[in-house]
Amino acid sequence: MNNIFFNSIDWPSVEKTEHKGITGIAYWQTLQFDKIRMRMVEYSANYLADHWCQKGHIVHCLEGSFISELKNGEKFTLAKGMSYIVSDDLSSHRSMSENGVKLLIIDGDFLKSS
User: Fold this and answer.
1) pLDDT category, 111, cuts 50, 70, 90?
2) Which CATH number fits domain 31-111: 3.20.20.140, 3.40.50.150, 2.60.120.10, 3.40.50.1000?
3) Cβ of 73: how many Cβ atoms within 10 Å?
4) pLDDT tens-digit profile of 69-83?
5) Any residues with CB less than 8 A from the CB of 91 and at least 6 apart, and which?
6) Per its UniProt entry, which superkingdom is the organism in (predicted)?
């Protein structure tokens, strides 16, 4: 069980790390709480992830829009105010964004498939 005491998060003070895609760059601000990881993620314009991800996530779009592509060819466009959720190892996916996007992403052991 995760026990997280009350925290207020000042995102501008959380260090940004840079992760290059096939094209574009993703900027991550990451907080780790025991078995839960919380990230504020921004994709630059023309971003395409450099890998197919099999990790589970809860993803909420804060600004802009992006496409989540599944390895089977399906594509889902998510815009501001929309979310998706997937468990580990159930749907290989990758993200792309034409004009950039800002996301809140939460993942961790609670999304392991059974």
Assistant:
1) confident
2) 2.60.120.10
3) 6
4) 999 999 999 999 999
5) 54, 70, 71
6) Bacteria
Helix (H) / strand (E) containing 61 = strand 57-70
> Residue 95 forms beta bridges with which residues?
68
Residue 1 and residue 35 in contact, taking contact as beta carbons nearer than 8 Å: no
> pLDDT digit string (tens) for 82-91?
999 988 887 8
Where are the domains positioned within the chain? 31-111
Phi, psi angle pair for 13, to nearest 5°: -90, -5
Whether the model pTM is above 0.70: yes
Cβ contact 65:104 at 8 Å: no
Task: Output DSSP code: residue 53.
Answer: B
- In the structure encoding, which two tokens stand for residue 73, read together? 């060819």
Which residues share a beta bridge with 38?
31, 106
Paired tokens of 29: 């601000």
